[in-house]
Design a protein that fits this description.
alpha/beta, 15-stranded mixed β-sheet, two-stranded parallel sheet, 31 helices
């Protein structure tokens, strides 16, 4: 029989029903019900869909509940929040505490930007809702004329919007050649750490440097190297680590960065590699161990920007032209370039650029047996759902706990219901023998998706070789084993899930960044050998994965990193594999929020070719230190303390997302305020930018509250500038007056008096 939907809605309205909730896959009936009640808007009726196509289900469901609540429906909020840890809070007394919590109005479109026509907007909204009666009425034609074309038009519109969204998420790393900077001269004492088998010391000495070699071999420990560095009496102008060139392990480069800090040497550190990156098709593929040094180095530059020189990849052979280019890089290229490769053809610098898809709707069609490591985790489970729904006849999911992993049984039941054979296996992918046994027990897979991995956050000063090994085990070692054991298998796809930490670094994630940079290099070597390989460097996902925690997601959002909606993220993954991408970065970034914080401590040339970098007008690490010192000049001691404390409270509030420093209690511990290693680095970077001081990444851990941190900063400013004396007008023998402004002097016997300054 015909479904008499309109009649049913009329009957309900006649019975006094004013709240209509659609429980279904989209909001189609919600739109249709409103068409059935022409006076719905004036009658106070409310129409709410619980699920909307292409929108996150939890957010849509909460929005539906909230919409009903504000229209008078009783909601069991305790039931809504059960198990979430949410607690009720007292709202401010608005008569006395006026603080706006609501979103600001959207500003008008900038001049020159196209403003959408109201009729056009209404037309496309009708198309997206598949509102047949409304669209027919708007166009002045019969519904019958549109019945066939409207679904196709709506689908076309949805695909176009999704393509645009996915393109906006896609980036790739490229290498940009720059002109030779010409002859450069080094000055001062330069340290070469490690064995100088390539004669770099002689090259540096030929260009003006005084070169000191610091003996260090692979496996050197932190304390020994720090003692050797601390015994040096010379003022150091620069440090060059050769340990990666000697075939050293990743931990050697970590030890160099740590020992320099232990020895209180703040000269810029350059980590040298050979084959750590590939700058073009004519170049060799990156070597995995060398590439890890680049991942580690990017985090050194984030956590210790004050003593960071950069990463420099050398050519296999060194001649006089190469030597001149190396010296020019160490002397400092324009723009503060810190990720550089020297080749026979010249100098290339690393850049991040947009990478819209070029192959339209290209997609990967899975078949046969698909192996997914980390398959019971958030990202792996999302991939499993897609491959099962799109052709895989058998899916093998691995994790360290196997069937005992949380929700593994529910996942198997869900996937089995779709029609594929599902097998969950306990397998530590870091164990080569376990991987070999797994592969031997299953049919040859047609595709491998390596989504396993752990992130163990530690500041650089607290990391050690064991920490590096633990993080690399599941992420990089697992991929290496799969690559080697499947070298003779013709795969449709070999996909590794990498991370943006390996692309541009992340505070507290040196080990994870190194592992992911090595993962990207492994795929580049597969591609160079003619085998399938795709590396997807992910930004944070919403709802699943390592950023699923609410506090982590909130912190990342404040930094400008928005969680990727899982369904669309999977679409981006499929698109990358289908298009044959070798490496792609997929991340949703609000650059106007991300770049100012990321570049607060120093310039980050990696981003300068993005159009958003120009729009954001990022200062690039310009120090305001002199302004800060001038502000404190002449203030009495108590007033100085107040000003510095207010500065610290304001920056803490900004990092935590508060409107002002008034929301922060100066004596409350940072850990109680919600700080972790990532927010600690963010606070340090903001204070460096404002004060111009060189501050350690462990600042928040060394001075556990705002009051203690303010005292430390005040002492640092006093040590750096001495007691700043107010301006002293003096008369001279000349015809014109002379004024000494903001002058300070520290003598062996103490701070100079105004009279002593005049005598000087």
């Amino acid at each position: 029989e015909p479904v008499r939907f309109a009649a049913a809605v009329d009957v309900l309205a006649g019975l006094g029903v004013t709240r209509f909730v659609e429980v279904g896959p989209d909001g189609v009936l919600t739109a249709l019900a409103q068409q059935c009640l022409p006076d719905a808007a004036t009658s106070g009726a409310v129409f709410v869909p619980v699920v909307r196509r292409d929108r996150p289900e939890p957010a849509t469901a909460i929005r539906a509940v909230a919409s009903l609540f504000v229209h008078g429906v009783d909601v069991d909020w305790a039931g809504v929040f059960t198990g979430t840890g949410a607690q009720p809070l007292d709202l401010p007394t608005y008569a006395f505490q006026r603080q706006r919590y609501w979103p600001e109005a959207v500003p008008a479109s900038p001049v020159g930007e196209r403003v959408a026509d109201g009729n056009e907007v209404a037309f496309w909204e009708s198309v997206e809702r598949e509102d047949l009666p409304g669209l027919a009425d708007r166009l002045g034609i019969s519904s019958d004329s549109l019945a066939d074309v409207l679904p196709a038009l709506s689908s076309w519109r949805a695909r176009g919007r999704e393509r645009n969204q996915l393109d906006a998420w896609r980036y790739r790393v490229t290498w940009k050649p720059i002109p030779d900077p010409g002859p450069a001269v080094l000055s001062g004492t330069w340290l070469l750490v490690g064995s100088d088998q390539r004669g770099l010391g002689a090259m540096l000495a030929e260009h003006g440097a005084t070169v000191l070699g610091v003996p260090a071999g692979s496996g050197i420990d932190r304390l020994t190297l720090a003692e050797r560095l601390g015994s040096l009496e010379e003022q150091v102008a620069g440090v060059v680590s050769l340990l990666a060139l000697d075939g050293g392990v990743l931990a050697d480069s970590l030890v160099v960065a740590q020992a320099l800090g232990d020895a209180d040497i703040d000269a810029p550190l350059w980590l040298l590699t050979c084959g750590g990156v590939s700058v073009g098709r004519a170049d060799m593929a990156a070597e995995v161990n060398q590439a890890q040094v680049w991942g580690l180095g990017r985090v050194v530059g984030l956590e210790h920007p004050d003593r960071w020189g950069g990463l420099l990849d050398l050519p296999s052979g060194l001649d006089r032209r190469a030597a001149a280019r190396i010296v020019a890089v160490l002397a400092g290229l324009p723009g503060g370039e810190d990720q550089v490769a020297v080749r026979g053809s010249g100098i290339a610098v690393r850049r991040l650029v947009h990478a819209p898809a070029t192959s339209g709707d290209a997609s990967w069609q899975p078949r046969g047996t698909v192996l997914i490591t980390g398959g019971t985790g958030g990202l792996g489970a999302e991939v499993a759902r897609w491959v099962v729904a799109n052709g895989a006849s058998r899916v093998v999911l691995t994790s360290r706990r196997g069937s005992a992993a949380p929700d593994a049984a529910n996942l198997v039941e869900e996937l089995s219901g779709i029609g594929a054979e599902i097998e969950v296996r306990a397998c530590d992918v870091a164990d080569r023998e376990a991987i070999a046994e797994l592969l031997h027990s299953i049919d040859e897979p047609t595709a491998v998706v390596h989504a396993a991995g752990i992130s163990e956050d530690l500041p650089l000063t607290a990391a050690d070789p064991a920490h590096l090994a633990r993080v690399a085990a599941g992420k990089l070692d697992g991929a290496r084993h799969l690559d080697e054991l499947l070298a003779d298998v013709q795969l449709d796809a070999f996909v590794v899930f990498s991370s943006i930490s390996g692309v541009w670094g992340s505070g507290g994630q040196a080990a994870y960044a190194a592992a992911n940079a090595g993962l990207d290099a492994l795929v580049s070597r597969r591609r160079a050998a003619g085998r399938a390989g795709t590396a997807v460097a992910w930004g944070p996902w919403a709802e699943v994965g390592m950023a699923a925690d609410h506090q982590v997601a909130t912190m990342l959002r404040r930094q400008g990193l928005v969680g990727l909606e899982p369904r669309r993220a999977v679409t981006a993954f499929v698109q990358a594999v289908g298009a044959g991408d070798d490496a792609v970065t997929v991340v949703d970034v609000r650059w106007e929020e991300f770049l100012p914080a990321f570049t607060a401590a120093r310039s980050r040339p990696l981003f300068v070719d993005l159009p958003e970098a120009a729009v954001s007008e990022v200062p690039g690490g310009v120090s305001a230190g002199s302004e800060f010192a001038e502000r404190l000049a002449g203030l009495p001691g108590g007033e100085r303390s107040r000003v510095v404390l207010e500065l610290v409270l304001a920056e803490v509030a900004a990092v935590l997302g508060h409107a002002s420093g008034d929301a922060v209690v100066s004596g409350r511990a940072f850990k109680d305020l919600g700080f972790d290693s990532l927010t600690a680095v963010e606070l340090r970077n903001r204070l460096v930018a404002v004060t111009g001081l060189r501050l350690p990444a462990t600042l928040v851990f060394d001075y556990p509250n705002a009051a203690g941190l303010a005292e430390y900063l005040l002492a640092q400013v006093t040590d750096a500038v001495g007691s700043v004396v107010p301006a002293i007008p003096v008369a001279s023998a000349a015809d014109d007056p002379v004024v000494i402004v903001g002058m300070a002097c520290r003598l062996p016997g103490g701070v100079a008096s105004p009279e002593a300054l005049w005598d000087l």
